[in-house]
Design goal:
The structure holds 2 protein chains of 2 kinds. Chain A is mainly beta. Chain A has one domain. Chain A contains 1 helix and 8 strands, in the order αββββββββ. Chain A has a 5-stranded antiparallel β-sheet with strand order 6-5-4-7-8. In chain A, strands 2-1-3 form a 3-stranded antiparallel β-sheet. In chain A, strand 1 and strand 2 form a beta hairpin. Chain A starts with 15 loop residues before the first helix and ends with a strand. Chain B is globular. In chain B, strand 10 and strand 11 form a beta hairpin. Chain B is an alpha/beta fold. Chain B has a domain of about 120 residues: Thiolase/Chalcone synthase (Peroxisomal Thiolase, Chain A, domain 1). Classes of the chains: A mainly beta, B alpha/beta. Chains A and B meet through strand 4, strand 5 and strand 6 of A and helix 4, helix 5 and strand 5 of B. Strand 4 of chain A pairs antiparallel with strand 5 of chain B.
């Protein structure tokens, strides 16, 4: 491991459960304790009902591909030597739409509506982020 | 019964600075645009009693502009922000202000200067390196600025409806033909399909030629009552109808925001105010941050069914001599990118009949403003004739 490269800023108190979840192999998202609605990214207040009673829970990690596109330019060290990266917006079963990447998929095979499931990518500095692959 | 805002207000002044690599501050460009608009309208600075301000990506023009301009007795003054829908919104609020006696002459001004000497054009819009870990995920995944999301939007349209790369290309090529007739356009050299296909990918399905320009410049538009406009230097361009519509959170499922934009809700209300139908519209000035935006906006407005935008424009309909001339100055793709002021300024030029060799039928001009990723929308209907 190359610990000199920091690709991801240190998580803060608000978002640490998301990144701890990824390290544990879990897509962990906020859910409202009152109405049960899920949300992403980090919220202070439930965007469905206004409650401040929010907790972190494991989401199913299952969803469908809302859309996709192929990144052909390097915007971050992670993209070096990996183009095209498949940009994806995934509709999770929990009702949340999340910006991510589609991996393990021929770009020509990606199609809106295809079922996908979460997987995880480890960075050189040991940080872990969720990405998605064909189900 | 005629809507009270139908033809209550009119555009009486237009100021456009040089566009593109003009290395001056956004505020100075905005100030110059206001002076140019006053001169265009034949108004003295002392007559201007309203100022609405919108700033672009550099967000560096605000309330202090009235001090820079030495405007001493304003009755309306505010900074507004609705991203790409702002310019259309400013015309709407200015129209309501003059129609209700808050002010006599309201200048709506936009200024931006994202281009710096020696810097790549795209860098101002690709904001990366946020310190918050959650926000940092976006550039890490490759979502830098609005461009990737519009590429996803175009790809979804392709997946659902069979829209092709050639359809996207048609928008770029058609608008370049218009730009060749616009002396203010930055890109006037001819463009063919081979040239489009040879331009580099940014986020596929977008070549660089699917993306708008990045421009420094300023645009100002002065709005007054229909009565006052008739006595001024320029032919009035009447505000016949307008509306706004804004999307809810696109980060939740159960809606299809990349395909069904808020323009679909704004258009019928704007047309109702104007007591008109789509069949009365003789030309369009559509916010074209990307080629796809033109396709989806024309669909949202109802010029063709959702999904049929590609074949609709492939027939040359938007081109010079076509049935629905659109983005007659070359649009944001080929003329200059002043957010919503690009389509509005061309609509004013066309509405006055000052389009010279690119002049198209101007009976009723439909103008769109689009902000965020198809989130925020304003629609205007302008005409040389009052209702």
């Amino acid at each position: 491991m190359n610990n000199e490269i920091s690709w991801l800023p240190e998580p803060d108190e608000q978002n640490r459960p998301f990144f701890d979840g990824a390290r544990d192999g879990e897509l962990r998202l906020q859910r409202c304790g009152d109405c049960g609605g899920w949300m992403y990214p980090v919220k202070q207040r439930c965007q469905h009902c206004g409650s401040t009673s929010l907790d972190w829970h494991a989401a199913s990690g299952r969803g469908t591909l809302y859309s996709h596109a192929r990144l052909q330019r390097v915007y971050h060290p992670r993209h070096e030597g990996r183009l095209p990266i498949i940009l994806a917006w995934v509709d999770l079963e929990e009702g949340v739409r999340i910006a991510t990447n589609l991996v393990g998929c021929d770009p020509a095979e990606a199609k809106a509506g295809m079922p996908v499931t979460v997987t995880f990518e480890q960075f050189p500095d040991d940080a872990v982020i969720p990405v998605f692959q064909p189900a | 019964m005629k809507h009270p805002m139908n033809s209550a207000a009119a555009v009486c002044g237009l100021g456009l600075t040089d566009m593109g690599r003009v290395y001056r501050s956004a505020e100075d460009l905005a100030a110059e645009a206001v002076y140019l608009a006053l001169e265009d309208a034949g108004l003295a600075k002392s007559e201007l009693d309203g100022l609405l301000i919108n700033a672009g990506v550099t967000d560096s023009v605000s309330i202090p502009l009235h001090i820079t301009l030495g405007l001493k007795e304003l009755n309306v003054l505010t900074y507004m922000q609705g991203y790409g829908s702002s310019a259309g919104q400013m015309i709407q609020y200015a129209s309501m202000a003059v129609a209700n006696g808050l002010a006599n002459y309201v200048c709506c001004v936009f200024g931006d200067a994202p281009l710096k000497e020696g810097q790549r054009t795209g860098s101002a819009y690709a904001r990366a390196g946020r310190r918050n870990a959650m926000a940092s995920l976006y550039p890490i995944y490759g979502f830098a600025g609005a461009l990737p999301m519009y590429a996803l939007a175009a790809q979804r349209h392709m997946d659902l409806f069979g829209t092709t790369q050639d359809h996207l290309a048609t928008v770029a090529l058609t608008q370049r033909r218009w730009a060749a007739m616009n002396p203010r356009a930055t890109k006037r050299e001819p463009l063919d399909l081979a040239g489009y296909n040879a331009s580099p990918w940014v986020v596929e399905p977008f070549h660089i030629l699917d993306c708008c320009l990045v421009s420094n410049g300023g645009v100002a538009v002065i709005v007054t009552t229909a009565e006052r406009a008739r006595d001024l230097k320029q032919p009035p361009v009447f505000v016949r109808g307008f509306a706004q519509a804004h999307n809810h959170d696109v980060g939740l499922t159960g809606n299809d925001p990349l395909i069904h934009g808020p323009g679909a809700r704004a258009a019928p209300r704007a047309l109702a105010m104007a007591d008109a139908t789509l069949a009365d519209v003789t030309q369009c000035q559509i916010y074209d941050c990307y080629t796809y935006t033109v396709i989806t906006t024309l669909e949202d407005y109802g010029f063709c069914a959702k999904g049929e935008g590609g074949p609709f424009l492939a027939e040359g309909r938007l081109a010079p001599g076509g049935a629905l001339p659109t983005n007659t100055g070359g649009g944001e793709l080929s003329s200059f990118y002043m957010w919503g002021m690009t389509p509005i300024s061309e609509a004013v030029i066309q509405g006055r009949g000052q389009g010279e060799e690119r002049q198209a039928a101007n009976d009723l001009i439909m103008v769109s403003g689009n902000g965020g990723v198809l989130n925020y929308h304003s629609t205007l209907l302008l005409s040389p004739e009052a209702a």
